[in-house]
Amino acid sequence: HHDGSATITGAAQTLASKTTIGELSVKLGRVTYLKKAKVEVAIATTLRTDVRRIDLEELSIAVNELSVAGSGDIGWTDDTLDLDVEVASAKGQSLKALVSAVPNAYAADFAGLRASGSPERVRGGLRRPPSERQFLARRESERTAWPRR
């Protein structure tokens, strides 16, 4: 099931999308990575072509019981990419949920594993800082762009 919307006004395009898949199986060659996995993906972004940036306001991905959410920015020039994206598991997500997302190809390695407990949160990020030239160009373009929400 998929729901989505878009608003296009000049240099800013807002996009929102939510997709739910009841059973997803992924097999590459002889290796099955996902077998009848329940998947849900939701995203809300603003593409700002005037400053070559995507404002990733909301990103949530769930595979089986594992759920992660994040936000950030993705900027670009003709030859570089500026990433600043952070994701974290849902607060209080159980270790069992993490194990539920282990690809089927590795499931035998976890046979008999018992998982319990809930860490505060598992977090990660992807950041590629811009060069000095990119930083100065982005700073100049942001000075003349609409204020960010």
Task: Please write the string of helix (H) and strand (E) elements.
Answer: EEEEEEHEH
Number of helices: 2
Percent helix range:
10-25%
Number of strands: 7
- Strands across the major sheet, in which order? 1-2-3-4-5-6-7
Low-confidence stretches: 144-149
Task: Report the end-to-end length measured between terminal Cα atoms.
Answer: 29 Å
Reported for the largest beta sheet, the result is: 7 strands, antiparallel
How much β-strand is present in the residues?
over 45%
Assign the structural class, choosing from mainly alpha, mainly beta, alpha/beta, alpha+beta, or little secondary structure.
mainly beta
The value of Rg in angstroms is 19 Å
Mean pLDDT: 77
- Report the principal-axis shape: elongated
Can you walk through the features of this model?
Helices cover 13% and strands 54% of the residues. It is mostly beta strands and 149 residues long. Residues 144-149 have low confidence and may be disordered.
